[in-house]
Amino acid sequence: MKSKIKILRIIHTLSPELGGPSNAIIDHSKAMIKKGYIVHILTSDISNKIKTKIKDIKIFNKGPAFGNYGFNLNLLIWLIKNKDKYDFFIIHDIWRIYTLLARLLLKNYFVFIHGNLDPYFRFDFFKKIKKQIYWYFFEKRNLLSSKSILLTSEVEKNLLNKSFVNTTGLKKNVVNYGILKPNINKKKAVKIFLKRHPKLKKKSFLIYLGRFHEKKGCDILLKSIKILNNQNIKLNLFMAGPENEYKNYLKKNCEKLKINNQIYWSSMLNGYEKWGAIYSSKAMVLASHGENFGLSLAESLSCSKPVLITNKVNIYKSIIESKSGLVAKDNVKDFACILKEFNKFNKKKIQKLSKNSLQCFNDNFNLNSNNDKLYKLLKD
Predict the structure, then answer these.
(1) pLDDT by residue (tens digit) across 53-67?
(2) Does some domain include residue 1?
(3) pTM to 2 decimals?
(4) Residues 336 and 228: beta-carbon distance below 8 Å
(5) 221: domain range?
């Protein structure tokens, strides 16, 4: 009997507050297990702070790590002792020590880039210089030694030509990325959400789920709503994500824009409350200046909810082709235009968008049926 292929995924943290990769890796691993792979996860988390029991997935938390580059002696010792138990390794971090350890210790490793070579980062001068130095001495060699770097879209692959570092010579493969379709009772989820957010009962609203960061374009969302107010178009927006200084800045900006009564804030949502928020909304919005994927967009599409995004979100071509939302440039004027356009849609048009949204999810981001490109790489 042929033995199952064993894969170790290495990621700095599974903390859900850091969004994207930390959340998607679980669904990605569950999909691989359904296909017959054995998947374990190695992190620099501290065991008593991060959830470690997930059905069918062994998680080894070897934190804490130290410094910006994540030096971790416990993880290093564990990896040396256990590396021969695995057939393949998937690294979910660059700009930290994990890819260097992979080059020095491992064979058959892949590296998920997760948008970390995006041209957006060239606008931060000091961060760009620091990363260019690290790239020249370490990171490029780390990636050249991998079986391939893994990308989530053709757009991300093409953007590497405009990156702030020279990516010539890297083996590049686009693989499917996304989530598993949630097995959620819709009515129960909506009931839980509205019970916890009673002010939104009987209100029509757009939703933003994610981290609060300048890169995410949240200021564009607020200013767009202000522009539409001046045209006597009143939109409500629910914004949920971890607390930080930039979120506080946005709240103060709401006061200056005099749109306080239209913006509803929440901490990060999980489980039924999160899915209830999506099901209760009209559409998901993301005005990002640079976004590799946008996990919340896949979640929205899986709930038959359209998305309103910028052309700096790397899945924007899939949204245009499937007619599952609207796309604008990443500026206030253009984003306000698609909000206005969406607000004009009648019930029939919304129903068509909803149908297209679910189809877009199933065609592009449903890991139950769209993980074949990665499996092929593991077999080659």
Answers:
(1) 677 899 999 999 999
(2) no
(3) 0.93
(4) yes
(5) 186-364
